[in-house]
Design brief:
The complex is a heterotrimer. By secondary structure, chain A is mostly helical. Chain A has 6 helices and no strands. Chain C is built from 10 helices and 11 strands. In chain C, the strands form 2 sheets. Chain C has a 6-stranded mixed sheet, sandwiched between helices. In chain C, strands 1, 2, 3, 5 and 6 form a 5-stranded antiparallel sheet that branches. Chain C is globular and about 55 Å long. Classes of the chains: A mainly alpha, B mainly alpha, C alpha/beta.
Chain lengths: 218, 284, 252
């Protein structure tokens, strides 16, 4: 009955999350090593994610219609619905990154921007942690993820200023630098979405809304 | 407030007064019969036949007669009454016929018993030629008892919740099976109580047997259905109206009355005990 | 692939001059649960009782159209109505066990057929009580009166009693409306388990119940079959305005 459906929804969400993680790490790996057919692989994964997203969407609605869940069950289903949405947008970001990465494959330009690697590590870490916290409904880890968003935002600002300098020094490489800027933007979005997931996980676990609040209240 | 209380007390006093009057009558009545009849009572009184032109002896033949009349009347009336009630409650069609039958039955229940006596005489004694006999008497009594038995059985059947019948039909039982396996067993206690009370009534009837069965004196107990019988109620009547030696016969009459009274009370008490036992055991 | 088990064709029903059911075409599929919902007094129970001819004894009842069980019209003349009723079992709103022992209640349907041996009946009784999830609670007191059971247990007894006939279809007429929430939940779960062996048609005034257990739901309004759909579909995107009004509580 209701419990079975909730289990199924959780599993579907987890498998979708797994796909998205794969897409994200694949897309940025391409900056540091040669990966053949990167874009095609990522796009293929995106298809699967889109499919799952539609299924989860539908299932959430019918579950609410048929079973009128309350309290925890209701929070869980609504959060799954929301996070499902976020995962789809994460997948989008990964695709965007892949498009830029495709242009930069085998280009040493990326090594001029060490902050990018750090940012990528942070963002991917946040994504991984937020999904882990979701599975375990861990409020601690979710809080940590929310806190890390600042670090990523700072890195983003640093990269922007750094790229400004690089463009002035080497205007010929502007196109490549702009791709890098885009990738940074996408990584920042990934961090944002991971924070969303963490906030939703906290609501699920303890019913507390922490969206739009400043960090000191956490 | 005191006015209300006063009014309340007044009515309570009135009711207690009425109760005393009613109960008083009953008590006086019973005491009188006991005082007049008890002196005559003995074991011999019950088991010996009358002697010396009813001035001595017992009332055994009358007791026997009453017993036989009642038993036979029940044998005739119970099955037909019960089956009629079953037909009326489960198979009765068309509705207008059922309604007419109910009117007839209820009317019969109110007909004075002397008329039953005349009816019995006309039909059984004369028309069918059964003569004044056990047969005629018990048939007449049976017809007397019939409306009461039918009504009582119908009521007993109606008091069985329809849920049971519905469940039975839904399981694929026929109406006949539903009646025999569910409805009738459930209604049986009430049917039985009603039957027992009818027995009490029938045993005490005088008018129906006056022209159809009873005789003042018979030398021996009845051998066959064609024989006349003595009966307790008739015996009382006869002794009081046709007796030649009132000094000895009136006490015997009261004694007979006492026996009859005790009999009826015993029968009704049995019915009440059975009914309350059944009520406690009742599962719905 | 869903297979029709019991269905109506242009079914109309009157009690005297009142038309209760208007041109009903309803299908129930094998090994599925079909719910009939709708406001009170709209003919839901009457419709349900058409499936086992329990409306027949009601005076002035007239019926046109057909009701098919596995392809045979149960209203055709010369149909053995008693066999139909054994094949299409029914459980009522108020639990109504007979004032007999638990054993004799379940055995009743078999006893009236007169063609089963004592040991066959004994086995069947045990089987049915197990199927109704009541065996463990009563196995040591089969000869106690059925009336000594609680309401929820009595209702499961009635289910066992109907199952003893090994019916193809089980009709449930608001089976939980007289029960407390725990007993209700138990019986709902029982229905989900039973649908594998018997097709179930349930009338309920509790819409949420239909949502929880029914594969297909029919909405009956004023004796008309307004909509019939997979439950998921009916509850999320009903096609008829009246269905939507009912589900959102505009009338009820």
């Amino acid at each position: 009955m209701l419990e079975t459906r909730i289990q199924e929804l959780k599993q579907m969400l987890m498998s979708e999350a797994g796909l998205v993680e794969k897409m994200a790490s694949l897309s940025v790996d391409g900056l540091y090593k040669t990966i053949p057919s990167l874009l095609e692989n990522v796009l293929a994964l995106e298809d699967q994610v889109n499919q799952t997203e539609l299924e989860i969407d539908d299932k959430c609605i019918t579950t609410i219609a048929l079973y009128q869940p309350e309290a925890r069950d209701l929070r869980l289903i609504l959060m799954i619905y929301r996070i499902n949405n976020d995962l789809e947008r994460l997948a989008d970001q990964a695709v965007n990154i892949s498009e830029s990465t495709a242009h930069l494959m085998n280009n040493p330009v990326v090594y001029e921007l060490p902050e990018l690697e750090q940012m990528k590590d942070n963002a991917l870490n946040m994504l991984k942690n937020s999904l882990d916290a979701l599975i375990k409904e861990d409020v601690e880890i979710s809080h940590q993820v929310c806190n890390e968003d600042n670090i990523v935002d700072n890195l983003n600002r640093q990269i922007y200023h750094h790229l400004l300098e690089l463009i002035q020094i080497n205007p010929i490489l502007t196109k490549q630098y702009l791709h890098l800027l885009r990738i940074a933007k996408n990584l920042e979005r990934i961090a944002d979405l991971s924070t969303n997931i963490a906030e939703n996980t906290i609501y699920l676990a303890i019913g507390k809304v922490i969206r739009h609040k400043s960090e000191d209240l956490l | 407030m005191n006015r209300r209380k006063g009014k309340n007390t007044f009515w309570i006093m009135m009711m207690i007064l009425m109760l005393i009057i009613t109960a008083g009558f009953l008590v006086v009545f019973i005491v009188r019969i006991i005082s007049l009849g008890a002196p005559v009572l003995s074991w011999k009184f019950i088991v010996e036949p009358p002697r010396e032109a009813m001035t001595e002896g017992g009332i055994f033949p009358a007791l026997m007669g009453t017993f036989l009349l009642t038993a036979l009347a029940m044998i005739f009336a119970l099955p037909s009454g019960i089956f009629t009630a079953i037909w009326l409650t489960h198979y009765g069609k068309p509705q207008w016929l059922v309604n007419i039958l109910h009117i007839i039955i209820n009317t019969m229940a109110g007909i004075p018993s002397i008329i039953f006596g005349l009816f019995g005489m006309a039909i059984f004694v004369n028309l069918l030629g059964f003569k004044v006999s056990l047969l005629s008497g018990s048939l007449t009594l049976a017809i007397l008892a019939l409306p009461v038995i039918i009504n009582n059985t119908e009521q007993a059947i109606h008091s069985v919740p329809a849920d049971f019948s519905e469940a039975s039909l839904a399981l694929g039982a026929t109406t006949r099976q539903t009646i025999s396996k569910v409805v009738f067993p459930a209604a049986l206690p009430n049917i039985l109580t009603g039957a027992i009370i009818s027995v009490g009534r029938v045993a005490g009837e005088t008018a129906p047997i006056m022209f159809t069965a009873a005789t003042f004196y018979s030398r021996s107990l009845p051998h066959s259905l064609q024989d006349e019988v003595m009966a307790l109620p008739y015996h009382i009547y006869a002794l009081m109206t046709e007796g030649t030696h009132p000094e000895s016969q009136v006490p015997i009459a009261y004694g007979t009355a006492l026996v009859l009274l005790i009999l009826v009370i015993l029968i009704d008490a049995t019915a009440i005990i059975i009914r309350s036992y059944m009520r406690k055991k009742r599962q719905w | 692939m869903v297979e029709k088990q019991i269905w109506t064709s242009n079914l109309n029903l009157w009690f005297g001059k009142n038309q209760i059911l208007h041109n009903i075409n309803l299908e129930a599929y094998k090994n599925h649960i079909t719910a009939i919902i709708g406001p009170s007094g709209c003919g839901k129970s009457t419709l349900l009782r058409c499936f086992n001819r329990m409306n027949d004894p009601i005076p002035f009842m007239e019926l046109t159209g057909k009701v098919y069980l596995d392809g045979k019209d149960i209203y055709a003349p010369k149909t053995d109505v008693y066999a139909v009723r054994a094949s299409v079992g029914m459980v009522f709103q108020k639990p109504n066990p007979f004032p007999k022992s638990i054993y004799n209640n379940v055995a009743y349907g078999l006893q009236i057929q007169g063609k089963y041996s004592k040991s066959e009946i004994k086995d069947r009784v045990e089987e049915s009580l197990k199927a109704a999830w009541l065996w463990d609670e009563v196995k040591d007191r089969l000869h106690h009166s059925a009336m000594s059971l609680s309401g929820g247990q009595q209702q499961r007894l009635c289910i066992a009693r109907a199952l003893a006939n090994k019916p193809k279809v089980l009709l449930l007429d608001e089976p939980t409306s007289a029960l407390d929430p725990q007993s209700t939940a138990k019986i709902e779960e029982l229905c989900l388990a039973l649908k594998n062996s018997v097709t179930i048609l349930i009338v309920t005034h509790n819409v949420a119940q239909a949502g929880r257990i029914a594969d297909y739901t029919a909405f009956l309004y004023l004796g008309e079959l307004v909509e019939f759909e997979k439950t998921e579909q009916l509850f999320t995107v009903p096609k008829d305005k009246r269905t939507e009004a009912y589900l959102t509580g505009v009338f009820g």
